[in-house]
Amino acid sequence: MTPASAVEPALRAALPAAVFRDLESRYLEEPRGRFIARGGLLIAPENVEQVSTIVRACAEAGVPIVPYGGGTGLVGGQIGDGFEPVVVSMERMAAIRSVDPVENALVAEAGVILQNVHEAAAEADRLFPLTIAAQGSARIGGILATNAGGVNVLRYGNARDLCLGLEAVLPDGSVLRGLSPLRKDNAGYDLRHLLVGAEGTLGLITAATLKLHPRPPARAAAMFVVPSPAAALDLLNLARDRVGEGVSAFELIGRQGLEFLAEHLPQVRLPLGQPEWSVLVDLGLAGDPQAALEGLFEAAVERGLASDGVIAQSEGQRTDFWAVRESIPAANRAVGAVSSHDISVPLGKLAAFIDRAPAVLDPIGRFRINCFGHVGDGNLHWNVFPVPGRTREDHQDDRDAIKRAVHDLVHDMGGSVAAEHGVGRLKVEDLERYGDPAKLTAMRSIKAALDPKGIMNPGAVLRAG
Amino acid sequence: MTPASAVEPALRAALPAAVFRDLESRYLEEPRGRFIARGGLLIAPENVEQVSTIVRACAEAGVPIVPYGGGTGLVGGQIGDGFEPVVVSMERMAAIRSVDPVENALVAEAGVILQNVHEAAAEADRLFPLTIAAQGSARIGGILATNAGGVNVLRYGNARDLCLGLEAVLPDGSVLRGLSPLRKDNAGYDLRHLLVGAEGTLGLITAATLKLHPRPPARAAAMFVVPSPAAALDLLNLARDRVGEGVSAFELIGRQGLEFLAEHLPQVRLPLGQPEWSVLVDLGLAGDPQAALEGLFEAAVERGLASDGVIAQSEGQRTDFWAVRESIPAANRAVGAVSSHDISVPLGKLAAFIDRAPAVLDPIGRFRINCFGHVGDGNLHWNVFPVPGRTREDHQDDRDAIKRAVHDLVHDMGGSVAAEHGVGRLKVEDLERYGDPAKLTAMRSIKAALDPKGIMNPGAVLRAG
Fold it and tell me: May I ask which residue range the UniProt record assigns to the signal sequence (chains A, B) (predicted)?
């Protein structure tokens, strides 16, 4: 691929000097060091016109572009692996252009950090519900490009469900101006949903109109000990039968994660000790959610769906409960996973997956599994760790076999091997292996039609042409 | 375009005789007689393989295909205007393949009538919320192809938001097998959202996995007299502040519609008489929605947002209230509209639109306006009628000028001239006039890439090539 240097003089002539920045290592390499760019040119544009100028010049010269948000992606979508791209970082397009509580809409530039969207919405007495571990650094452009998920998908949907409109620069440099907050607009194909989840391969998102929700009048959380993952699902359905949409989050937590927490983050209080399986339930509704949780607990015990439980008596306790769930990824990092899997299966097969999956590793070796996640979405983080006394380095050569064994099972059960983190560069082969052939052909046709020179984030999602 | 007769012998040889049906006039002409096909071949396939056979043969021969659902479309998308297509009616693919209350998913073939989906969901104690006037005859394939809206979009979204997966035949005859019920799946571009709303121009939907919701534990409805459309919006926000997502529907009703009802459908009871503006509010929530409506009414009166109101005391009364709203289209037909407009504007401009729109007709003549609709979505049906003593025929020559004047205003206010009924063949020129140029170019590229011969519903959404 033509290196960025081929277009650098033209871009330096066309753009103000301030947009050119040092290409620090974080733009070249992702945290785990799996994908490494050979170099390139970093540009942090200030507005959509500058983005258009960059894309137009690169399209003309055939120079690849890699869009860069918060750099928190877990699948290498933000790294121009093996080539020298123009890296377009959205860090300076970080304005919240408007917050409109009547419209229930907020217009954010692609570089706005998720946390800042939360805060701006709250100031207008509204909720932007998307919540992920990386919310302190992930930026809206990347969140939409990867269709991020998180703990509130159960109630509010994925990133795409929270996006009303987009402004984006298409691969020919033209500007799609679609920041309308309209709730009903059937005027033509939905390009918004095509760009969301395309991971920068069909265009570069520069701003978005985000959907705000009412803030639930009252919130409450509880942790219940459940006898099994199947019981957790029954409990979720019981909860929904009793309070309808009021269930905001419903997270499954396996014992292994709690053990990791006890060992590596002992400051995190474990209100129920270390049960084999527990769930964190969060309700937000008009009325008395704490009473609803008490009623739910009684009904669950009656049905054998829970054996113990704690209901947060204050917002502080609610925060403590969430700290358990949200600290698990940090504990995982402290232990060091051999292989991490972001998978989803149909809800009806979730318990069977949890039951069957450990056995697929038997031919490879002995491991510890930390299984936790968004059980209401059928989305599990099923992470494989060495047994005590061994390290992840000991299992470097097992990683591909582990991934293949787990993904084969997921696929056999009708699931997805790229649930909420995207395909990036990490799962291109998986997509080729497991994807629907008609879908892949159509994807390649669309990519070739919109980006005939293949300059937009080449190698992400689809193999570079 | 090559007529259907060119491919008929091959299709008769490849398919069972039973799938060929008489091409009755309803397949050739839509209710208002604006679009008329010159003839063609009607096929009602029994399964997706037969659909694939049809599409493959037509692609080879360059024969146009028009998909046909319930025939209730209001923009001519279902009529092969001026040519002789193969009409593929989905009427025999009308099975509900599965209903799964754990998955909260229902798999329906494209020919299933909406009402039947409602009933199947209710039998499983679940809700499929999409509700439109034509639900007794509209079929799921058409509902998704047009991304239908209706009265519950406020709470549950448009058709696209209720679709988890699709099975479809693409323009080359390949079968997209994507009926997964997964809530989180980021494995590649979202072709589902591209096909939904494409009105059959990018492929033919043969089945869908639909998203079911919990049935709200309790429901209640009320009608309030409001001083203005602006007050109606304030009332909606007040309602949402008080009960969160519990507001299922919020419909604005103008006096003209009530007058039409009194004149043409006197059996419909008008609980509040004929106020200038009124709203129908429907709540569904855990707890006591009737009490919530009483509290809302008191708070609304206090704030000057309502002057009178009735709260349904029984499910029968609730049904009566809804009969008012749902009978307005029938009353409109009895009067005979000169021009009907399915438009949306940002919520913040809705009141201004209602205020300013009548004046744009002044240069054309004197008319009566019936304005009603889904105010929470910014979606109005703004229909123009002759004054008493004149008929719609008297205004035949005014129709284009009226449409242009109304649509210009909508566009100026940042709205959409195709809110929930689609583009079809009726609004192709509007899309060209008002659409974002980058979007139109991208749409044409995608159409050419996926359907290079232009056989899928040519002339709908985009001008036939």
Answer: none
Residue A31: pLDDT over 80? no
CA distance A149 to A132: 7
Residue B298: CB atoms within 10 Å: 12
Contacts of B244 in chain A (CB under 8 A): 214-217, 284-286
Q: What CATH number does the domain containing B263 carry?
A: 3.30.70.2190
A91-140 pLDDT, tens digit per residue, is 999 999 999 988 999 999 999 999 999 999 999 999 999 999 899 999 99
Write out the residue range of the structural domain in which residue B185 sits.
96-214
C-beta of residue A231 within 8 angstroms of C-beta of residue A239: no
- Could you tell me the maximum CA-CA distance found in chain A, to the nearest angstrom? 73
CATH number of A152's domain = 3.30.465.10
Domain count of the fold of chain B: 3
Residues B109 and B179 in one domain: yes
Q: Tell whether B324 and B226 lie within a shared domain.
A: yes
Residue A434 within a domain:
no
End-of-domain residue from the set A280, A307, A335: A335
For residue B145, tell me if it sits in a domain: yes
Does A133 reside within a domain?
Answer: yes
Last residue of a domain, one of A185, A214, A243: A214
- Rg over CA atoms, chain A: 23
CA-closest candidate to residue B322, choices B160, B138, B152:
B152
On whether any CB of chain A is under 8 Å from the CB of B423, the answer is yes
Q: How many beta carbons lie within 10 A of that of residue A256, not counting itself?
A: 21
B138 and B206, same domain (yes or no): yes
Do the chains contact at A188 and B427, CB–CB below 8 Å? Answer: no
Single-letter code of the amino acid located at A118 = H
A269 touches chain B (CB under 8 A): no
Mean pLDDT by 10 residues, chain B (465 residues): 96 98 91 84 98 98 97 93 96 98 94 98 96 94 97 95 98 97 96 98 98 91 98 94 88 98 97 98 91 98 98 95 94 95 96 98 98 95 97 95 98 97 96 98 98 98 91
CA–CA gap between residue A28 and residue B305 (Å, rounded): 57
Contacts of B242 in chain A (CB under 8 A): 217, 286
| Contact (CB, 8 A) for A150 and A132 | yes
B432 touches chain A (CB under 8 A): no
What's the number of CA atoms in the CB half-sphere (13 Å) around residue A40?
31
Q: Is the dihedral of CA A48, A54, A55, A57 positive or negative?
A: positive
Return all residues near B282 (Cβ < 8 A) that are at least 6 apart. B151, B219, B220, B221, B247, B248, B249, B250, B318, B322
Quick one: tokens of A347?
A: 């809800």
Gap between the Cα atoms of A364 and A369, Å rounded = 14
How far apart are the CA of B100 and the nearest CA of chain A, in angstroms?
9
Distance from the Cα of B456 to chain A's closest Cα (Å) equals 14
A146:B186 CB<8 A: yes
- The string of pLDDT tens digits covering residues A370-413 is 999 999 999 999 999 999 999 999 999 999 999 999 999 999 99
Nearest CA-CA distance, residue A246 and chain B, Å: 9
Same domain, A84 and A145: no
Tokens of A117: 């969207």
